[in-house]
Amino acid sequence: MDKIKELETIIKESNYIVFFGGAGVSTESGLKDFRSKDGLYHEKYIYPPEEILSHHFFLENTEEFYKFYKCEMKK
């Protein structure tokens, strides 16, 4: 079986698919990266962005999590 057919079979037989993309995918879509001069690391938040974006932070600081997203979605 060639690789493309093999991948097609895996996808068809899967219940879930996860895609891990890097900054190149995000920035091409108009999303900010973390490290550029306009990136999330250079904005002023009480918590570091990688902490805000974590599942643990969402569970422990739900209100701050939503404040971050509301602010970022307006941009």
Summarize the structure.
This protein is mainly alpha-helical and 75 residues long. Helix content is 51%, strand content 0%. It starts with a helix and ends with a helix.
Structure description:
- This protein has 75 residues and is mainly α.
- It has one domain.
- 51% of the residues lie in helices and 0% in strands.
- It has 5 helices and no strands.
- The radius of gyration is 17 Å and the shape is elongated.
What are the salient characteristics of this protein?
5 helices, 51% helix
Q: Any low-confidence stretches, pLDDT <50, length ≥5?
A: none
Anisotropy-based shape: elongated
- How far apart lie the N and C ends? 47 Å
How many helix segments? Answer: 5
Q: Radius of gyration in whole Å, from Cα?
A: 17 Å
Class by helix and strand content? mainly alpha
Compile the SSE list and pairings.
Elements lengths: L2 H10 L10 H6 L20 H4 L2 H6 L1 H12 L2
